[in-house]
Design goal:
Order of helices and strands: EEHEEHHEEHEEHHEHEHHHH
Number of strands: 10
Strand order of the largest sheet: 1-2-3-5-7-10
CATH architecture of the largest domain: Alpha-Beta Complex
CATH class of the largest domain: Alpha Beta
Structural class: alpha/beta
Oligomer: single chain
Radius of gyration: 19 Å
CATH topology of the largest domain: 2-enoyl-CoA Hydratase, Chain A, domain 1
Bound molecules: acetoacetyl-coenzyme A
Shape: globular
Length: 259
Amino acid sequence: MAFETIKLEQDGFIGKLTIARPEALNALNSQVLDELDKALDEVSANKELRVLIVTGEGRSFVAGADIKEMASLSPIEGKEFGKKGLGVFRKLEKLEIPTIAAVNGFALGGGCELAMSCDFRIANEKATFGQPEVGLGILPGFGGTQRLQRLVGQGWAKYLIYTARNIKAPKALEIGLVQEVLPVDEFEARVDELANIVANNAPIGVKLAKEAINTGAQVDIESAIKIEENLFGLSFATEDQKAGMQAFVNKGKAEFQNK
Ligand code: CAA
């Protein structure tokens, strides 16, 4: 379907979801969240896609939830708005295919939370991260209090959330919030390269690994190991397992068929 505030594009195995409200630095209002929700359903239904890149148009990734929309919300409306964002971000996090946040600029508040709902984060040198909510009289409401501590530990999460301080990409790299930082002119090419590297690995193997990591992180280690054991076994049911191992034995390289 046609969207007004986001763009969903496909190039072969790779999908690209762009938040496109540059006049508001891609702030997330209800319309953006509703469109993201629909776009994620389209991504889930598209069986050609192997990787999804999430990025922002212009000089911002996402500068947060829309403060102008939130300013006059009642407690009940605030809760509903939070629930909407949390639901969409959880849907993103639970997509079967891997997701890469390509952080091209401001990733503040809901923007940092959007990036954290992706599987990993690649930033350009200009990117800025932060959870400025307590400076607005609220707290992170699209998953920030939960995902930030899981990614960088409680000390850094509390430091960033309580101080409302923004950090630049190199600091985000140092604390493990992002995986790579690139000069602006190399950034897009590197994101595409990484997306292609992931897309050319066995897609079902990648999906099962994502399931094992995400599900295993929510349970005790005994149950988590059992989850890996079962998913590892399941990977042997794929044609790509046969092709991948046969190619190794023959000193070749497999072209995975996603089967
Ligand atoms: N909501 C609504 N509009 C926003 C916005 C936001 N989060 N961020 C930027 N904009 C708008 C600005 O109001 C401005 O619009 P106008 O031209 O109509 O005035 C336009 O985008 C450009 O922004 P600036 O002129 O402010 O650009 P700048 O380069 O001077 O500053 C910035 C950039 C530092 C990112 C600054 O815009 C800013 O501080 N934005 C707010 C960041 C923030 O606090 N985000 C957290 C929101 S709360 C949240 O996300 C809650 C949650 O967890 C769900």
